[in-house]
Design brief:
By secondary structure, this protein is α+β, with helices and mostly antiparallel strands. The chain has 18 helices and seven strands. Strands 1-2-5-4-3 form a five-stranded mixed β-sheet. Strand 4 and strand 5 form a beta hairpin.
Length: 388
């Protein structure tokens, strides 16, 4: 059953209920109609939907009802939002194809993750899910060449080539096309710091598969690896957006061929069992799906899974605006990492693994990382020490 709204979110209870009704994998016209019959603040609904990245999904659900009970101005906004999403998706697909064509002669083999491929898996349409950038995995050994190719394609990198040569590892390798909103993020095995254990890149490539994106074959992760990656991504960001939970719920509902034994194995390989279980439990608690029978026994054996789901439900409606203190963040990280000594070591690693935000000014070209690591805890304290 969905959790009760925290007191801070009661002011938008009706709007939140409509978002949930539209984000549920199964189309529920009666429930949506009941929500539409309430006294809705449509401006607030749009802001909330944008904050949770589900506005396009909500618009498509309402479109299925011919926008019944939706005011004319709100109807126009939804239609404009859907058109804008489709145009953006087309532009990003064109960028992706150009990158793949450019990378191929250099034998750089990217794997597309999240974004359009997740939209395909969850919603059977690459343009439904809102995303702001394209995410590609490349091997660490290829990142220098990949960065050089991205520059040649006209993208501006956020990480200088000197830092790459020095062995610096950012949160991601960020590239933006000037004058546009087109952003590409390249990820390598060391950038996935939020995996409790190192990402087994060779295994991911071995298990990878081909999906069709606008008729073109694209390399993607296996179903099980993509599901786990998104559960880890949600945990990394404290599950503060409804879209991440809706993704998990819709992938589970729309991809019956998921091999749950394999999913558990790939989670065990990187120590992310609890992250997978919390993602599934959240999808059940928030959007009413059933935890797959093959996973329910694992859920029942871990008492922290329902506790973490309830905790997340407390801040979820606030879309990242809830105040979460630094100690609460640390405890959450440790518990998501498995708890006990395992969780403590996971928290310690995250606290001392520097990203570009921690690099000492002027040290980008130096491989020595100790001062960067020592700066990181102090930066985190400054950022979150006042709670949120």
């Amino acid at each position: 059953m969905p959790q009760a709204l925290p007191s801070a979110a009661q002011a938008f209870e009706h709007e939140w209920s409509l978002l949930l009704a539209c984000a549920t994998p199964q189309f529920q016209p009666e429930v949506i109609s009941q929500c539409l019959a309430k006294n809705l603040d449509w401006d607030l609904l749009f802001r909330l939907g944008e904050d949770h990245n589900v506005l396009a999904v909500v618009g498509l659900r309402l479109q299925k009802l011919d926008f019944a009970s939706v005011p004319a101005d709100a109807r126009d906004k939804f239609r404009a939002r859907i058109r804008a999403q489709n145009l953006f998706a087309l532009s990003m697909t064109a960028e992706l194809f150009q990158i793949l064509d450019d990378f191929a002669p250099a034998r750089i083999e990217p794997i597309l993750i999240k974004g359009p491929v997740l939209s395909l898996l969850a919603y059977r349409d690459s343009a439904v899910r809102t995303y702001a950038d394209l995410d590609l995995i490349v091997r660490q050994r290829d990142i220098l060449a990949a960065s050089q190719h991205m520059r040649a394609l006209g993208f501006e990198p956020d990480v200088p080539e000197t830092a790459i040569r020095a062995g610096k590892v950012p949160g991601e390798y960020f590239f933006a096309r000037p004058g546009t909103q087109r952003i590409i993020e390249l990820h390598t095995e060391p950038t996935f710091r939020y995996y409790p254990r190192p990402m087994p890149i060779d295994d991911l490539y071995q298990r990878s598969r081909t999906v069709l994106l606008d008729g073109r074959p694209i390399r993607a992760l296996s179903l099980e690896d993509e599901l786990l990656l998104n559960c880890i991504h949600g945990a990394k960001h404290f599950w503060e957006r409804l879209v991440w939970i809706a993704d998990i719920a819709s992938v589970v509902a729309n991809q019956p061929e998921i091999d749950w034994h394999r999913a558990w194995q790939v989670a065990q390989a990187v120590g992310a069992e609890r992250m997978l279980l919390v993602g599934l439990q959240l999808a059940a608690d928030t959007l009413g799906i059933q935890v797959p029978a093959q996973m329910s026994a694992h859920v029942s054996q871990d008492p922290f899974v329902p506790r973490l789901s309830r905790q997340i439900s407390g801040w979820l409606p606030m879309a990242g605006n809830a105040s979460i203190s630094l100690p609460a963040r640390a405890i959450f990280r440790a518990r998501m990492g498995g708890g006990g000594l395992t969780g403590a070591l996971y928290l310690l690693r995250l606290s001392l693994s520097p990203t570009e935000e921690d690099w000492v000014e002027g040290s980008e070209a130096r491989g020595f990382w100790l001062w960067d690591a020592l700066r990181r805890p102090f930066r985190l304290i400054r950022k979150y020490g006042q709670g949120g």
